[in-house]
From TrEMBL:
Cofactor: Mg(2+)
Higher taxonomy: Bacteria, Pseudomonadati, Pseudomonadota, Gammaproteobacteria, Oceanospirillales
InterPro entries membership: Diguanylate_Cyclase (IPR050469), GGDEF_dom (IPR000160), Nucleotide_cyclase (IPR029787), PAS-like_dom_sf (IPR035965), PAS_4 (IPR013656), Rev_trsase/Diguanyl_cyclase (IPR043128)
PROSITE patterns with a match to the protein in the record: GGDEF
Record-annotated GGDEF domain positions: 185-318
Transmembrane residue ranges: none
UniProt GO MF annotations: diguanylate cyclase activity
Superkingdom of this protein's organism: Bacteria
Organism encoding this protein: Motiliproteus coralliicola
PANTHER family cross-referenced by the UniProt entry: DIGUANYLATE CYCLASE DGCM-RELATED, REGULATORY COMPONENTS OF SENSORY TRANSDUCTION SYSTEM
Pfam families per the UniProt record, alphabetical: GGDEF, PAS_4
Name the record gives this protein: diguanylate cyclase
Documented EC number(s): 2.7.7.65
Length: 325
């Protein structure tokens, strides 16, 4: 179809296109409907006889009037076509989706074309609005986007706890480590694990052991901020980077989560299970050197807590805590 169409062509064109699966509307520069094809009648339940001669905005008051007016005015002013896809605006007319394959869509997704129609003197005095049903393509794209997001989530999330898995957590930790060194920011790494976890599995069974891991993760998720990074580092070991937090703030976080875990009592049928955690933390320093060193420092502080009675928190101090290896 030519981008510039004579009004003299409109009548035969509309007759030829009445039965096609595309909505066609022609309006004049006062936005009164000149033509309204079968597609529009069938989907809007507005008969051609009622549509023709009516103001488009009064005929369909649910239209996005400000947006639509800008498109129509641009076509007239520039004498050029204007296009809108469903990604920009899902629909112009809220029609029901009627195709069985796209039954999951609440409405018809539409691509819209606005074409200038020229009078015999070469001026734009009417505009043709074409409405294309692209629901199937839109739903397919949305499904693919949702699937990709889910696959991405699965690839970076620990299935049992919902925290980041170790691989993704280490990627994020590396970025945070570099950010801190580059801009002189202070963040603190916390490592903690569940005390006597083997005893929990031996005494209560692995299913209850799994529930203890999940409960600890859920509590961690509740206590961290959106900017923090929590991951399941090993079987019953967790790692949290407290972004832009110094060792005093880390101490407060550690003690809060330690006390809340200690207060937990998980009920399983007639059994009540309580447990504790041990924690260690290390504030990043300009001399830390590498992410692996930072992790070793926090881990050494954790094992210092375990060696000193468990259910406690210790800060990494190079004068009192030695790094392994």
């Amino acid at each position: 179809m030519s981008e510039q169409i004579s009004v003299n062509d409109v009548h035969w064109m509309m007759g030829a296109l009445q039965g096609i699966d595309v909505g066609l509307i022609v309006v004049d520069t006062d936005y009164r409907v000149v033509a309204w094809n079968d597609f529009m009648e069938n989907h809007s339940d507005i008969r051609v006889s009622n549509a023709v001669g009516s103001n488009l905005f009064e005929l369909s008051p649910e239209l996005p009037s400000e947006w639509l007016l800008r498109q129509l005015q641009a076509v007239v002013a520039l004498n050029l076509p204007v296009y809108s896809t469903w990604q920009q605006r899902p629909y112009l007319f809220r029609f029901k989706s009627y195709r069985p394959i796209t039954g999951q869509a609440a409405h018809m997704y539409q691509n819209i074309t606005f074409l200038p129609l020229l009078s015999t003197t070469g001026e734009v005095d009417k505009i043709c609005i074409s409405i294309y049903d692209v629901t199937q393509a839109a739903v397919n794209e949305q499904n693919m986007t949702a699937l990709n997001k889910e696959l991405m989530k699965i690839s970076r999330t620990d299935r049992m706890t919902g925290l980041f898995n170790r691989g993704h957590w280490e990627e994020m930790a590396q970025r945070e480590f570099k950010r801190c060194l580059r801009y002189g920011h202070i963040s603190t790494l916390v490592m903690f694990d569940i005390d006597h976890f083997k005893g929990i599995n031996d005494n209560y069974g692995h299913q209850i052991g799994d529930e203890v891991i999940k409960a600890t993760a859920a509590l961690t998720q509740r206590l961290i901020r959106e900017s923090d990074m929590a991951g399941r580092y090993g079987g019953e070991e967790y790692a949290v980077i407290l972004c832009d937090t110094d060792q005093d703030g880390a101490e407060q976080f550690c003690e809060r989560i330690r006390r809340e875990v200690e207060a937990l009592s998980l009920q399983f049928d007639d059994q009540s299970v309580s447990f504790t955690i041990s924690l260690g933390y290390a504030q990043i320093q300009s001399s830390t050197g590498a992410l692996e060193t930072w992790i070793k420092q926090a881990d050494a502080a954790l094992y210092h807590s375990k060696a000193n009675g468990r259910n406690c928190t210790h800060r990494y101090d190079p004068e009192t805590i030695s790094l392994p290896g």
